[in-house]
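User: Can you predict the 3D structure of UPF0295 protein SAMN05192533_12444? Sequence below.
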Amino acid sequence: MGKYSSKINKIRTFALSLIFIGFFVMYGGIFFRNSPIVMTVFMLLGLLFIIASTIVYFWIGMLSTKTVQVVCPGCGKTTKVLGRVDICMYCNEPLTLDASLEGKEFSESYNRK
Ligand SMILES: [Zn+2]
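Assistant: Sure. Here are the predicted structure tokens for UPF0295 protein SAMN05192533_12444:
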């Protein structure tokens, strides 16, 4: 069960890693100080990653409006559920909005049609 995490958290991690990749690429550009063209390419590439991350953060905001807030039976905290099944953001308890799936083992495949 440990390998699953909340979808929103997953996307957030993805957006955060994009920022890091962006800064890393920009930092890499410093090693090409001697050729301004290569450095500019690195800087632009890094900027692109950061822009992409901003878009992903925006997407999270859009997704958040579609999530359903539920009180987790495991830890009692209010968490967000996206799709038919999701994982509690705090304690990784599997949650479902579909009564027919209740009690079944958690699987991400329930979200697919
Ligand atoms: Zn919980």
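The chain has two domains: 7-64, 68-111. The mean pLDDT is 86.
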